[in-house]
Design goal:
Shape: elongated
Order of helices and strands: EHHEEEEEEEEHEHEEHEEEH
Number of helices: 6
CATH class of the largest domain: Alpha Beta
Number of domains: 3
Strand content: 25-35%
Bound molecules: uracil
């Protein structure tokens, strides 16, 4: 987004709704530009220098947003759905900028680390099939996972559609009536973890993503909470996904 931007376009980008909704906001005299109440959406502003307030709240310009969400079960990894709540419903209004989307999907019943961003190219690079971004999951499995099954999962298993998974890392944390595992995979097929365990005759009863690339779920984030990534996290993520020349 360059300098000399229309005020209504800027507000729409910053998550204040569609251009029509922004028009209403302006008509309701809720927008202040450099200390003056304004109603004209076509006013040109410099988003990096001009001070814009809506309902007395500063609207700070930022082109790209990167949020870490500790996704709870029961929410769809989507931006809207007619029937079920989506992860966007968990994002506070001031962070819900336009085009904010989850990077990839966690199943409705899966919890843990979900990155959301409006940086389309970065999301694309993270999700590209050949990006080989490691994703680590904590899982509880019904029954005892044997070292033989661990070896099969690590070497690559044949899924129900005939696809053989790439080598993975499997750590058995506890093994008993319910086993606990850490599993790192380098791809992201549909329901991959559950289907990998199915392939060795096991049922996943709890699934949580702990990390993705060099991004680790913040233990301080309660279930359902999100926070912007730190500068350092953004830098690492960008370095991780830099296009290879
Ligand atoms: N694998 C799954 O089976 N489900 C998820 O949500 C993520 C990985």
């Amino acid at each position: 987004m360059g300098k000399g931007q229309r005020l209504d376009k800027f507000l729409a980008h910053m998550g204040f709704g569609t251009r029509r909704e922004v028009k209403t906001l302006l008509r309701q005299r809720r927008v202040v530009l450099n200390g003056q109440r304004v109603t004209a959406g076509e006013l040109k502003i410099d988003p990096e220098r001009d001070q814009v307030k809506v309902d007395d709240r500063n609207v700070k310009y930022q082109e790209f947003y990167y949020l870490m969400l500790n996704k709870p079960a029961g929410y769809l990894s989507a931006t809207k759905d007619r029937f079920a709540p989506t992860v966007l419903d968990l994002i506070p209004a001031d962070l819900r900028v336009r085009d904010l989307s989850p990077v990839g999907r966690l199943d409705k019943d899966t919890e843990g680390l979900l990155l959301l961003t409006n940086d389309g190219p970065l999301a694309h690079r993270l999700l590209a099939p050949n990006s080989r971004v490691p994703k680590t999951y904590f899982l509880r499995v019904d029954g005892k996972v044997t070292p033989a099954e661990q070896a099969v999962l690590a070497a690559g298993v044949l899924l129900d559609d005939g696809y053989r998974t790439l080598p993975a890392e499997v750590h058995i944390l506890t093994s008993g009536e319910v086993s606990e595992l850490l599993l790192t995979i380098y791809e992201g097929k549909f329901h991959q973890v559950k289907r990998m365990l199915h392939a060795v005759g096991k049922e996943v009863i709890y699934l949580q993503r702990r990390s993705m690339g060099n991004l680790t779920l913040d233990p301080g984030l309660a279930s359902g909470e999100c926070r912007p990534l730190t500068e350092e996290e953004i830098k690492c993520l960008k370095a991780w996904t830099r296009p290879v020349r």
